[in-house]
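Wed. Picked up where I left off yesterday with LUD domain-containing protein. The coffee machine is broken again, so keeping this brief.
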Amino acid sequence: MSSRERILARIRAAVAGAPDVEIPRAYRGAGDLPDTGLVDLFARRVGDYRAVVHVVPETGAAERISASLTARGARRIVVPGGFPEPWPSVPGVELMTDGPGLGAAELDTVDGVLTTCAVAVAETGTIVLDAGPGQGRRALTLVPDYHLCVVRADQIVAGVPDAVARLVPDRPLTWISGPSATSDIELNRIEGVHGPRTLEVLVVT
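Structure written out below (tokens, as returned):
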């Protein structure tokens, strides 16, 4: 008898005759949280993650994007295909479209990426990308050190189950809760290890 078989035999002997126990599985589902005040809650939770957050009307989105890129001193920003036009015109900033020539090494040399998102979660301050229009492939938002993400107010849902209900499970999903950070080494917070060091979120109402 192998070690595995011996262990399983002992487990079977230990539970022999034990009554069946019903395990409650009252998991939270879509629609279980109130859907009011989502923009304010999302902005607060994103800010808790040390992300930079702006809430602006749609008419001010292009101006806010320009101001953010100018304040950062960006010179080359990647914009995935499908990003809503018109793109903001930022003096001195080259808005680059994604292409086969932009490998990891090239992406490491740009100043950041400007994307949309698929959905955002108010309760957790999480942004979800699924490689849809304006979001690009996963490397675009993991390699550059700066990510400016535009979130429409109608993309913000109350909780994670609500977000899952909107997503297509077989798409490449990236869940972002603030800038990349880890405290694995001596509990010291290090940012920019697994993704962008700086996340800036523009919520368009």
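Quick read: The chain has a mean pLDDT of 89.
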